[in-house]
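Sequence decides. Our protein:
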Amino acid sequence: MDNHQNLQPKFTEIYGTTARWFRAPGRVNLIGEHTDYNDGFVLPAAIEYYSRVGVAPRPDRKLMLYSETFRETFDVDLDDPRPVPRKHWADYPQGVALILERAGKRLRGANLLIEGDVPIGAGLSSSAALEVSVALALLANSDIVVDRVELAKLCQHAENEFVGARCGIMDQFASACGARDRALLLDCRSLELRLLPIDPSVSLVACNTMVKHEVAHSEYNTRRAECEEGVRLLSPFLPHIRALRDVTLADLEKYSSALPDVIYRRCRHIVTEDARVLDAATALETGNLKRFGELMGESHISMRDDFEISCHELDIMVEMAVMMDGVLGSRMTGGGFGGCTINLVRSDAVKKFVGDMAGCYERVIGPRPEIYVSRPAEGASEFSMAPQETQQP
């Protein structure tokens, strides 16, 4: 998916020079939803859809940003003493540059061309892919090297502190640290990482409901606040806890009377979801894909009933998927209230699954879903415009 030969001529047309090229993938989260900001466990995989950035140095301290997707140019002054987000796509690269500078990474001015095929608004982390690809490009342009964990942390800070989204570390980490044919078991407290094999007999298939309900952003922040309230209410009984990751199901049941029903159910999702992630990791390691699929189903029910972040379209799509041949598991993925489901599908059944899902969903719901098939992909890297040729930075 990286044979984009038109990009180098486009860069030269706009800026008059050639460029170095960097890419970072989107991600699907196989299991472990909303656990990342609770210091818990997640199991994402990078996918073969990318944000790509061409970069070349400028003699001044400005960034010129051209988006091929939006056909817009935006300039950023790296010496602006009071940068302000504008609720615009350029907030993401500008925020990355700002955080890199605040972390002591003095950047050279740069011309950038940004392009990508990670679907926007589908819950596949187009924003994290953009942040990580831009960060990698800006650092390379300035002859600065950082390790991948630091790269992910810096990009998360950019989204938290400049863009204003209170995301956890998972999306940026998966984009920066993804591995071919592997899922990433990430401990979001220690950032310890284990790479787990995804059997080649199955594919990852993300199905886009084509809806994104307006409540998604506000409800995400509400869920985060509800989890924090759960920790506050449980702390008098469990003084050792720092996050819901530290609460066992036995603890939660013992002190459930101290929690309002809504807070109790939010906590129950997080506590049981962490356990499901660890069970799912064992299932992958032992090749028990049947069990992995069962855990995906349990996760969706928990998100639907306890965390209440699903929606009619997602539920219908999951119900359809689990009735189809070759589907081992299905659940919503991402922040919720629309976006995508993730389906674990036998590779020999993918073609039929794609056709059946597209037709069934369109008949019942209305819009024809976009469907993205992928194997787990490598994380962020520099790449060459020569076909079939990539290199690590």
Q: What stands out?
A: The first helix runs from residue 7 to 15.
